[in-house]
Amino acid sequence: MEIVRLEHVYKEYPLGAHTVQALTDVSFSIDAGVVLAIAGPSGSGKSTLLNLIGCIDTPSSGRVIVAGHDITGKSPDALADLRARTVGFIFQTFNLFPVLTAKENVEYPLLQRHNMSKQERNKRVERLLEFVKLSKYARHLPNQLSGGQRQRVAIARALVTRPKVVLADEPTANLDHKTGEGILALMKDINRKTGTTFIFSTHDQKVVDFADHYIGIEDGQVRFLGVRRDGKWLIRDEWLQKARSDLAETRVSGVGAHVR
Are residues 138 and 55 in the same domain? Predict the structure, then answer.
């Protein structure tokens, strides 16, 4: 089942007397429960894509459908409501409130849910802090935590509303190599255990290598669509060729299949 679909999406921004074309005729879909990397150089359109999928912005033309909702033409209030119910965010700079403890930072998104009791909020927050191995740091302020610990708090905060999609914008950019790998492994573990869809925006190959699916973007256009098979990346034409080859083999065995 797909969780995100983009259909012939264009996005333009005014820049003085000129117009910047950030995305040009972008179309793809994302299945629920995958770990996807959107990769490309700086200025390629990665952040614009995340803003659209995250219901922060709307396309200039085309359609963006998130969790069954077409965001095209929606008001800022409608986008905010959909965002709060559907999407979690993880930022490279963590974006934690410096005056709130780790527990309070994780709890913060739930404060807008007036139908949730304090006891229920506490239980959910404590469970997530335990899951990301930060229970004993619950009362620590962000400046008392390491970079990796702060990112774990940010991950717990992104998950606390039980979103369908978590967007991670360069999630390891401010972390050392070992800590970054630990954070990626944690997110993949969460994906496997909860089925939450993770979408990374990155230019880092090690982040791409943690994903199951890959979208390569350059100059606002999708250049590559890839999927991991047997530890290797297959670009779209290659994986279709392999699927057809597998189909031929199964037909020899008398088993039918269908590949588009």
Answer: yes
